[in-house]
Amino acid sequence: MFRRRPEAGSTEGPAATVMVTVEGRDIRVPEGASAAAAFLLAGFSTIRETGISGAPRAPYCLMGVCFDCLAEIDGVANRQSCMVTVAPGMTIRRQHGKRTIDVEAAAK
User: Fold this and answer.
1) pTM above 0.90, yes or no
2) pLDDT band at residue 25, thresholds of 50, 70 and 90?
3) 102 C-beta neighbours (distance < 10 Å), count
4) Which domains occur in the chain, in start order?
């Protein structure tokens, strides 16, 4: 029923992995995995807090529709982590609260 993604490695042996940092923890994740998957593989059940109530949210649809997986990736906030493929040395952090906009940068 379920098949491995072609970029996840061979079914004959272990898949290649990359080292990423999730909330300060260095972990190895399969090459080709999403940043959201790395967060889950690191053992975290939530990835962000809502802007209004601060309620915890977790990756939900994992296909870019729901926006529940917003995270800070390599210092850039509001990234849909399910749509970002991990890269060696990537840093993934929880997103806290509502989105902020750099007004000066937006004016340029």
Assistant:
1) no
2) very high
3) 8
4) 14-96 (3.10.20.440)
